[in-house]
Specification:
The protein is α+β, with helices and mostly antiparallel strands. The chain has helices at 2-11, 15-25, 66-69, 74-114, 148-172, 203-216, 222-240, 323-347, 362-366, 368-372, 374-399, 403-417, 435-447, 470-483, 500-504, 533-541, 547-553; strands at residues 122-123, 129-130, 422-429, 451-457, 461-468, 509-517, 525-529. The strands form 2 sheets. It has a 5-stranded mixed beta sheet, with helices on both faces. A two-stranded antiparallel ribbon has the order 1-2. α6 (203-216) packs antiparallel against α7. The longest helix is centred in the N-terminal third of the chain and has 41 residues, at 74-114. It starts with a helix and ends in a 9-residue tail after the last helix.
Length: 562
């Protein structure tokens, strides 16, 4: 590398530097102008130098410029060498790319030169295309589909053909696959589409006749049964024969069976009311006369009948608003009403309403009038406030419902609640002789609009059954089981102190059963008295609920066993 760099540097030197170096090479001249011979020096190992052979031409000494190049730094020389090599590689690569592009351009020019030229268009006198010899060229019209549907269909057909070909190749080579198992059957071919199989006329009629004949053979003996079975086999054989293969015998006239129809009447039934009666039984064949007095200008329209298959229109589905939507609708209605009132005032149809005075806005609205006499103005404002308050109370009073209206509303509400389901509660009462207890049971049942009854039978037991809504039944249960103190019997005042301890240990009223029924079994609410158990059961049997009495009689309080 050092030699290369020295030589490279020497080659790059200028001409003046070369002349300076040549001048330094010349030996110094002698005083006498003779040639100066250099002094011979000993060799490195003390040998004398050999005399130079005049016949042998000495080799030229290396250029002195290479000697100082060896003193360069080795690292910088290596970096310079690598940069020079990289430049040489880039130059070679660029040269090769240029050569390739030129070769491609030459190929393209050659192909353009060799490309066929456009054929000249020749037409005859009739405008038809002809060739060089004058023959008419027959051009076949080809349908080119531009619709997306047809293009997709063509693609699907092409794809189907490709898949079929691939399936055939796969089936042909499936035995060569490494995982092929000859014991497993493979599907061969595609499943053929089944065509229509039309039933011949009379097939089912023939089958029905055979079934009837077999059922009729149950009462026959063995010989008759065999004979009928032989007939069935012959009929089945005739039906299975191809009619085109049956040999034609002598032509015979076939008896055509005609379907029996009713005879055509002389007069239709709809014409009988407007015709005069004739004596047809005695041979009177005259045309009946028309009774014109029975014909009028009215037209009889048939009663419309709803179609069987179509359902009636259910109508619009009711829409339920949320609380937020209800407030919004109320606000919009008030705004619309206020705007309408303002428009009427602007048009002069109604006088403008007086300002709504308050004690807080009195000075702002009246202004100078309030400053002049504030006591008088305050009195007027207070009077107006009282009038507004009184008008508000009167409106509320007018909107209030009366007793009858409240009762009708409650009744309507209970009917809506019990339209689909009615709750029933059955109670057993130990003693109903107290008038106060009896009044509470009766009046609460009437207030809740219950249906049912309370049967009092002193020797056999007391029963209370009520029918109503779930909410009312819940309140009535609280009355019967918690609110009424059944141990406080005011009817027996004489022995109240004696039986106080024994009656306090009793509940007095028990809920026997609570459930739901589809519809009410009682029409109203009433108190009944029964002298015997049979009479009490008969009262309940009239409503179809006699089992209520059995449930009360067999009921046992669970707390009694604890």
């Amino acid at each position: 590398n050092a030699e290369y760099m020295g030589g490279h540097r020497f080659a790059a030197m200028s001409a003046s530097d070369k002349r300076k170096r040549e001048f330094k090479k010349e030996p110094p001249a002698d005083d006498e102008g003779g040639d100066h011979q250099a002094k011979k020096r000993r060799s490195r190992w003390g040998q004398e130098p050999e005399a130079a052979d005049p016949a042998v031409v000495p080799a030229p000494a290396p250029a002195p410029a290479l000697v100082p190049a060896l003193s360069f730094d080795v690292a910088s020389a290596a970096a310079a060498t690598a940069a020079a090599l990289e430049k040489a590689k880039k130059a070679a690569l660029m040269q090769r790319q240029i050569q390739e592009q030129l070769a491609n351009l030459n190929k393209l020019l050659d192909t353009q030169k060799k490309a066929p030229k456009a054929r000249a268009l020749r037409l005859d006198a009739q405008g038809r295309e002809i060739d060089e010899q004058g023959n008419v060229i027959q051009i076949k019209a080809t349908d080119v589909s531009t619709l997306k549907v047809n293009i997709n269909k063509a693609k699907e057909q092409k794809m189907t053909e490709v898949l079929k070909q691939a399936n055939k190749e796969l089936q042909a080579d499936v035995t060569k696959l490494p995982y092929y198992d000859p014991s497993v059957p493979t599907q061969k071919g595609e499943r053929t589409r089944r065509g229509f199989q039309f039933v011949e006329e009379g097939t089912y009629i023939r089958k029905a006749e055979q079934v009837r004949r077999r059922q009729g053979m149950k009462g026959m003996d063995w010989a008759q049964r065999k004979q009928e079975e032989r007939k069935d086999q012959q009929d089945e054989g005739r039906a299975a024969l191809n009619p085109n293969l049956i040999e034609l015998g002598p032509i015979s006239r076939m008896a055509i069976k005609l379907k029996a129809h009713d005879s055509i009447p002389d007069v239709e039934w709809w014409d009988v009311p407007i015709l005069k009666k004739t004596d047809a039984e005695n041979g009177d064949a005259r045309v009946p006369e028309i009774l014109e007095e029975k014909i009028n200008h009215l037209v009889e329209h048939p009663q419309p009948v709803n179609p069987v298959g179509e359902q009636p229109d259910p109508g619009a589905i009711p829409m339920f608003l949320t609380a937020k939507e209800k407030k919004k609708m109320t606000r919009l209605r008030k705004q619309e009403k206020t705007k309408e009132m303002q428009d009427r005032v602007r048009l002069g149809l109604v006088p403008p309403p007086p300002p709504k005075l308050r004690l807080s806005s009195m000075m702002k609205i009246l202004g100078t009038q309030a400053v002049a006499d504030p006591s008088k103005v305050e009195k007027q404002v207070r009077q107006q406030i009282e009038e507004r308050q009184q008008a508000h109370l009167e409106r509320n009073e007018a909107r209030k419902q009366g007793k009858e209206q409240k009762k009708e509303k409650l009744k309507r509400k209970i009917e809506e609640q019990t339209a689909w389901e009615t709750k029933v509660a059955l109670f057993k009462v130990d003693d109903l002789s107290n008038r106060q207890h009896k009044f509470k049971v009766d009046i609460n049942a009437q207030q809740h609009l219950f249906t049912g009854c309370a049967i009092i039978s002193p020797n056999n037991g007391n029963l209370v059954v009520v029918e109503g809504s779930q909410r009312d039944i819940k309140q009535y249960k609280k009355l019967m089981l918690r609110r009424i103190n059944w141990t406080n019997n005011a009817a027996d005042e004489e022995g109240a102190n004696e039986s106080n301890e024994t009656s306090a240990a009793k509940k007095g009223c028990y809920l026997v059963w609570e459930g739901s029924v589809k519809q009410r079994n009682f029409r109203n609410w009433k108190f009944l008295e029964a002298r015997s158990e049979l009479e009490a059961k008969k009262m309940l049997a009239d409503r179809g609920v006699e089992y209520y009495w059995d449930m009360v009689k067999t009921y046992r309080d669970p707390d009694a066993d604890m």
